[in-house]
Amino acid sequence: MLFEKLLVFFSIAVVALCESDSLEQVDDEELLGLFRNEKHVVVLFTKSNCPECDKLETALTNIREDLVETCGAWVVKASSSPLVKLYSPTKEPAIVFFRHGVPLLYDGDDNEDAMAHFLTDNKEPVVKELTDETFEHLTQSSSGATTGDWFVMFYSNDCIDCQRLQARWETVGAKLKTRLNVARVNRKTTGRVTSRRFHIVEEPTFLLFRLGKMSLPGHP
User: Thioredoxin domain: from which residue to which, for each copy (predicted)?
Assistant: First the structure.
């Protein structure tokens, strides 16, 4: 009997939360806990006295039920959180979708249909992690075989700029996934041999492999 009452109470609480006209606010400790324990978490990084933040919150609140049903996602907001600096170069407002802890930055406006489509269409991380063992096999960089074109970021774990680029790089991968492969290589650990092969001496460095030819973005 007690269990049934608790179940009813929980169901009412969930419905009330989904019908609320604002997002649940969490602090940084709660947010990090969600990243560790939940597969899908959508976060609006917001701040006070920010009309643009309010517009995005309204849009995100309106599509929250779809995100819960489609992705099983937690949809929350964090106000004036220092964590936003790790995911958005322009800080607040920012919508970041964490998939198994991997961040994806939504860089669109408050159009609800576009927002819902982008988030639900990218429930899993897009950027591929390449290593010395997999790089040549997957990219066929020396043969120009038919694995498609590759846009690769060389990074390291101690590179602050690389950390701040991760969410943006996932966005690049999401937008280009029908045209080419987007990947990254850890220059100092699992990709040391590959990095020496292409004379990578700093990070982040970006290389484009197209039809077996390597080029720097913006160069022929």
Answer: 127-213
H or E segment and range at residue 30: helix 28-37
Helix, strand, or coil here: 38? coil
- Cβ atoms of 164 and 89 within 8 Å: the answer is yes
pLDDT in tens, 79-113: 999 999 999 988 899 999 999 999 999 999 999 99
Which residue, chain included where needed, has tokens 């939940």?
38
Residues of the chain with CATH 3.40.30.10: 17-120, 128-215
pTM listed for this prediction: 0.85
State the helix-helix crossing angle for 51-71 and 2-19, rounded to 10 degrees: 140
Q: Mapping DSSP to helix (H, G, I), strand (E, B) and coil, where does residue 31 land? A: helix
pLDDT tens column, 208-219: 988 767 877 754
Q: Kind and range of the H or E element at 220? A: none
The CATH number given to 128-215 is 3.40.30.10
Single-letter amino acid code for the residue at 92: E
- Are 135 and 185 in contact by the 8 Å Cβ rule? The answer is yes
Per-residue pLDDT, averaged over 8-34, amounts to 71
C-alpha Rg value of the chain to the nearest Å: 20
User: Using an 8 Å Cβ cutoff, are 23 and 44 in contact?
Assistant: yes
Q: What is the pLDDT of residue 90?
A: 86
Residue by residue, DSSP assigns 98-153 as EETTEEEEE-S-S-HHHHHHHHHTT-S--SEEE-TTTHHHHH-TTTT-SS--EEEE
Question: Does residue 93 have a cis bond before it (omega within 30 degrees)?
Answer: yes
